[in-house]
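forwarding from the other thread:

> can someone predict this with manganese (II) ion?

sure thing
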Amino acid sequence: MVVIMKPGFTQRELEEAVRSMEQGGVKVMISRGSETTILGAEGDARGLDEEKLSQLPGVERVMRVSEPYKKANRKYHPDDSVIDIGGGVKVGGKKLTVIAGPCSVESETQITAVARAVKESGAAALRGGAYKPRTSPYSFQGMGEKGIELLLEAKEQTGLPIVTELMSPDQIPLFEEKVDLVQIGARNMQNFDLLKKVGKMKKPILLKRGLSSTIEEWLMSAEYIMAAGNDQVILCERGIRTFETYTRNTLDLSAVLAVKTLSHLPVVVDPSHACGRAAMVERMSMAAIAAGADGLIIEVHNDPKNALCDGAQSITPYDFAALMPKLSQVAGCVGREL
Ligand code: PEP
Ligand code: MN
């Protein structure tokens, strides 16, 4: 349940509404938006007296919320959330954020070359996997801690904040210290224990949509992180499994719109994993911006043919440089900027 305050309510009226909700047995989340202030009930709202609450001075109306996600719900927080990922980079709001880099960190020369190139073209952050969730145990598993060190070196040279995937709770202290934006991959989207633990981190989380997860399941995973105390969540649509096999996954662009309606959290799109084909990345990136995404995460490799992971979907720094001005044009058409 949410209680919507009247414009111009007094502090005393606010306190009275909060007290009355607390007496009904819930915790109260106060969201002060640009136009309205909303009191969201956290916990079991059955003890709340809707009639009584709606008659309090200062209260405009009371609304039942049927969705199971609360903190992630736009009804609890009408304004768009803007998430700071460090280095002056924000995700959400008018300005779009493009994150770029290889699927995996492979060597110092590779990551620093890609980092410099994407920075030059206007990327706002650098991605690169150090711990890789591979389907086969015989495939390259990532460089681990050494990979994080190399990302930090690339960060030092370019100033780009770094984004990398966390796979296990053991990695939390390392990531807390060294990583700017912590990625939770599609395969771990419903690893609820891990979600609770990253919910205790002080770092923003990039939560990828699970391979076969509904929008509501995805938002419930965001809710796990937020309920544990970390409200710095960015959602990432990365394609879902369908019957189609031509593309690696099916990019669900309508999910961007759905999630922007249902939630206040920013959403970025990963066209690389969605399509699995480098040739599709440009147009799908443009389409994602047109659909209202707050940014993109794109795989860029200096030598895609010899990449240790996801070469087929990786574009070159040259392609990336050509893509950015096109994204900027699309952004202008939808009232955004790059
Ligand atoms: C990745 O970003 O390299 C990755 C493994 O993504 P996903 O979890 O979306 O498959
Ligand atoms: Mn990848």
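The pocket of phosphoenolpyruvate (ligand 1) is lined by residues 103, 129, 133, 185-187, 208, 238, 273 (CB under 6 Å). thats all i got for now
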